[in-house]
């Protein structure tokens, strides 16, 4: 019997070359061996049984935690390799989405709305990993409930594949930083740029602080749709314009340019990781190199950046200072905040030492001359 369906992977993984059918009779030890060997398991049993099997596979992988490296950078790279191996193995447990995005499994939840939000309207029968599907379901719940953000006077509703503002310290920094001279006295007449807006949370903060016009840019269609959704929910569409960035900056100049680039110079392996990893610091450098030419007199650029990369040995403070100077910028001031997320105090995290020392900063930058 031949079974055909379209393959989909948000991480861009190729379709597995070998697939066997698995169900509630499949033992975890057998499934683990097959998955490690590159054989995918197409689940046709009970949905809750599939979730239990996925947890069992995860437990086995947890026993293979890598040893710390000789340097923080080596520890980081080993950790990422282990996470990559974990994702590949867990990604071998597959389920079929029918041509209406439903799951034809016993005790399966209704995932049609979640899948339509993530993947778009249903078109054909599709095979995805259960692990990815659980991420889609979780994202749907985040989007439905929203993330309370006091600095915007409401909640932000993240979409699938868009980084959620669960780390509130960087939002609070933007809410508290002194506005630049170009804004003083007439914020309603000022224009700001929010580069790489994501959910639109920082653009919303600027609107709440009274800036009359904020141009929020992004290159991700999902982020653009998400930011527009949040702008509409918060009722600030008359003050925030969401637009495709093209080459990062919109046309013109602004009194304030805000940028919260991904904080770690490494390559992302999934859509949501694009909010964490910035290959070769490309977005950071593009922001710095274009800033002086996009500021009005008396304007500032606000760079929101964690120093986690420095504690991991992926970037030095000297390199950051040199990038400022090379872009013709000076530091007006720096505001710091300690992270408020569970990993900062999780001693079992392989990167705990670096995370415990991490500081998030808002760098107020202006042209050097």
From TrEMBL:
Keyword Transferase: yes
GO molecular function: nucleic acid binding; protein-glutamine N-methyltransferase activity
Transmembrane region(s): none
Xref: InterPro entries: DNA_methylase_N6_adenine_CS (IPR002052), N5-glutamine_MTase (IPR050320), SAM-dependent_MTases_sf (IPR029063), Small_mtfrase_dom (IPR007848)
Domain of life according to the entry: Bacteria
Domain (Methyltransferase small): residue spans on this chain: 186-306
Protein keywords: Methyltransferase, Transferase
GO BP: any one term: methylation
UniProt protein name: Methylase
Source organism per UniProt: Streptomyces silvensis
Lineage of origin: Bacteria, Bacillati, Actinomycetota, Actinomycetes, Kitasatosporales
